[in-house]
Amino acid sequence: MRIEDTLSYATRHIITRPRRSALSMLGIVISVVAIVVILSISAGLREELSGQLAAFGPDIIVVIPVAAAEEFIGESFIRPPTSGKIFQEDVDDIGRIEGVKRISRTINGREFTSFKDKTISAMIYGTDVELFEQYEDYLEIESGRFYREGDRRVAVLGADAAAEFFGKDKMEVGSAFQIKGINYRVIGILKKIGSSFSRTDDLAIFIKFDEGQEILKENAPQEDVGYVTIQLEEGYDAEEIKAAIEKELEANRRKGAIGKNFSVVTSNQVMDVVSNILIISELVLASITFIAGLVAGIGIVNTMLVNVLERVREIGILRAVGATRVDIIALFVAESTLLGLGGGLLGLLAGYGGLGLFEGFGVPIKLTVGVVVYVAIFSFSTGVLAGVYPAYCASRLQPLSALRYV
Predict the structure, then answer these.
(1) Could you write out the DSSP letters of every residue in 226-293?
(2) If we measure between CA atoms, which residue out of 212, 207, 92 comes closest to residue 158?
(3) Model confidence pLDDT, tens digit, residues 352-374
(4) Domain locations in the chain?
(5) Cβ contacts of residue 314 below 8 Å, gap of 6+?
(6) For residues 344 and 292, is the Cβ–Cβ distance under 8 A?
(7) Which one of 66, 73, 126, 381 counts the least CB within 10 Å of its CB?
């Protein structure tokens, strides 16, 4: 039997039983939708995160006042993260390390902010002016300018902070507002970053570091400098500088008999951790889609077995007019394969539509050619494998027995 005859026969049989065919394909459709959404969101998150870390650059190191939990993995038990403080003495010592180009301090917390007749609670960041130089490719000015060393009581606002905080009352360069009852003037507004990871930065209010310490003193002691961002000179290795920073901070803490209560984090380190999390989540979700695919395959097997029982006389006639066992197997495998590919195509279209909904909520999406190819292979292989056993059963029917079947 020619291939085109086999496909035509299988197609006609699927079309004449639309309800049963639709139910058979439903499992494949659900599996493919899950695959498309999961892999596309994962790829989108990975690309967006990589882009943001690239904006920070491999020459950025951050020192945070928390000892990461992974520092303790391998001990008799896993202790929770240890919280501590970064002091001005630590900043001074880090600044003397060879290879350190710029260093900035940041302290943050929520405070009541007022503009005209409205008051809200907003996140305030007290930072040194060097922070804007360190993140010049990430924090860019839309209007106005960054504050300078001699400026007092001025603020730089994220794009959403200026546009959304006070509803219809938009803040502009020169607008006067209050933080904790203290008068401030907007000196600059940042360009909107707009990524799913940048919402906090788009809503930030930046003020001078020493003023931030004063405003946030109820939540942080005066000697606490929050966290520290370090930019390296060109040509220096981030891991070597990281080791030197850890050595200095550990020496300072031994003076006061304090254990390790800080973490020194590089951009590559953050990317590695996030990549591992994404890989684990992808594996877990892939196992779920595999189970869904298995269920879909079982559904097609059941449908094809019912088809065999309903078409015993038809099979007998085909055998009587010269169809071989291979022809019968080809007919049933072709039918199950078309069901699988049909479900894959419908699932791909439905998944693409679902991605549009996620994208509308700000979730990063990247539908790659690899995902489409994977869906095609998944649908094809599920259809073929699901049709093998029913096709084998159909091919074993004897022509005379099949013709006498009622």
Answers:
(1) BEEEEEEPTT--HHHHHHHHHHHHHHHHHHTT-----EEEEHHHHHHHHHHHHHHHHHHHHHHHHHHH
(2) 207
(3) 988 888 887 778 888 889 889 98
(4) 3-51+272-403, 85-260
(5) none
(6) no
(7) 73
Integer angstrom CA distances of residue 395 from 62, 90, 323, 373:
68, 80, 10, 32
Find out whether 329 and 315 touch, Cβ atoms under 8 Å. no
Q: How confident is the model at residue 218 (pLDDT cuts 50, 70, 90)?
A: confident
- Retrieve residue 263's tokens: 């973490």
Token reading at 251: 């020496």
- Cα 343 to Cα 380: distance, rounded to the nearest angstrom: 10
The CA distance from 112 to 66, in Å, is 27
Burial call 282-299: b when 16+ CB within 10 Å, e when fewer? beebeeebeebbeebbeb
Give the separation between CA 213 and CA 116, rounded to whole angstroms. 25
Residue 243 has which token pair? 């080791």
Q: Count other C-beta atoms under 10 Å from residue 234's C-beta.
A: 7
> How many CB atoms lie under 10 A from the CB of residue 177?
23
Write the CA distances from 283 to 39, 193, 286, 347, 348, integer angstroms: 10, 31, 5, 21, 20
**Could you give the CA distance from residue 83 to residue 237 in angstroms, rounded to a whole number?**
28
11-44: b (≥16 Cβ within 10 Å) or e: eebbeeeeeebeebbebbbbbbbbbbbbbbbbbb
- pTM (predicted TM-score): 0.69
36-76 confidence digits (pLDDT tens): 888 888 888 878 777 776 666 778 899 988 765 444 333 33
Stretch 163-179: mean pLDDT: 91
Distance between CA atoms of residues 359 and 220, nearest Å = 39
Read off φ and ψ for residue 120, nearest 5 degrees. -135, 170
Alpha carbon distance 254, 406 (integer Å):
91
- Amino acid identity for residue 39 in this structure: L
To which residue do tokens 């039918």 refer?
335
